[in-house]
Amino acid sequence: MTENHAAMIEQLGRKARTAARALAASAPEQRNRALSAAAQAIRQAEPEVLAANRRDLDAGRERGLSSALLDRLRLDESRLEGIAAGLEAIAGLADPVGRVLAEWTRPNGLRIRRVAVPIGVIGVIYESRPNVTADAAGLCLKSGNAVILRGGSEAVHSNRALHAALVEGLKAAALPAESVQLLPTQDRAAVGALLAAHRWLDLVVPRGGKSLVARVQQDARVPVLAHLDGNNHLYIHAAADPDMAVEVAVNAKMRRPGICGALETLLVDRARLDLVPALVDRFGEMGCELRADDGVRAVDERLAPADASDWETEYLDAILAVRVVDGPDEALAHIERYGSGHTDGILTEDEAVAEDFLARLDSAIAVHNASTQFADGGEFGFGAEIGIATGRLHARGPVGVEQLTTFQYRVFGSGQTRP
Description:
Blueprint: H1 3-25, H2 28-44, H3 46-62, H4 67-73, H5 77-91, E1 100-105, E2 111-118, E3 121-126, H6 131-142, E4 146-150, H7 156-172, E5 180-182, H8 188-195, E6 203-207, H9 210-219, E7 232-236, H10 242-254, E8 263-269, H11 276-285, E9 289-292, H12 294-297, E10 304-305, E11 319-325, H13 328-338, E12 343-347, H14 351-360, E13 365-368, E14 388-389, E15 397-398, E16 405-412
Parallel strand pairs: 3-4, 3-6, 4-5, 7-8, 7-12, 8-11, 9-10, 9-11, 12-13
Antiparallel strand pairs: 1-2, 2-16, 14-15
Helix pairs in contact: 1-8, 2-5, 2-7, 3-7, 5-6, 6-7, 10-11
């Protein structure tokens, strides 16, 4: 970290801290106007944003990015409209600031109220996906927080174009433009300076690959809200509906293989090995490579052999590990050993088995008879998400506007003094 980087972060931090105070005092309607105006500005800037994205895609191809990573990076008219609509959806959410979380009166007459308030200044460090620029900014703005964004070099032009539109929305609502700031450099040393800025940042949220998140967790001097990886599992139980099990498994992996909610390991009950040929057919049609243990390969010789590393790998690509298990206990043991606590679940028509399985499953998101790709703030009704948290403190699962608030105790008296 150089002195120049530290000075730059201090300048950004001071502006963000001032903006955060203005946001905390702003009316919900004003923040909603900013979000709606930003959505409209993104629509109006569609040619510029898509041209910037094409520059990023061309550079990504030259750098040899995988098809999955290019898909994460790509914007088109439909995805850009989704980004704008996402901001409008956030504007339509209930205001998370000022909620009375609890209230009580003490014997001495003191009234105590626990009230939701903004966290303050949030740093978001992310890779590849330019939609995170708008999602993170929108969620922070709605919850009254200022944000400093640091996107990946892969999406630098897309991020700058989207940020410009977001600033237009802030100005239209007479809110500080510094409420949403984008780190002006891609120098990795600047990230170190940001992570050390405990005076200016109250929370850091990393969103990206395992190496990025690991670095943030190791180097940050401020609290971190994160997940390290998404090694997600589905277990096909003996009582699973055959057709549904195949369809859900295929969707969980192949809808978008490069997102953190994608399925990475499929566990098949020994009683449901009859589904293996159908699974091989469907995944094969979609270009997905299956790597299986000996028990599964004995059913279908088309399968490639898996090794120990496959059980602990987050592929983020069209590769799926498949393993046979003897019942829910063995499935849970496998998930406990290899899973990352992100999103895991069971496919079964036996409700009692499902309830027991979910109760013993130590994951941030536990699903029954549904695709792991629903691990998304928008699908949860949060409007969007700033990331998925797999820790146990403050927030867990999709992090939306409510999770971007903390609380304050407000004590109301009538002249009481403590004896």
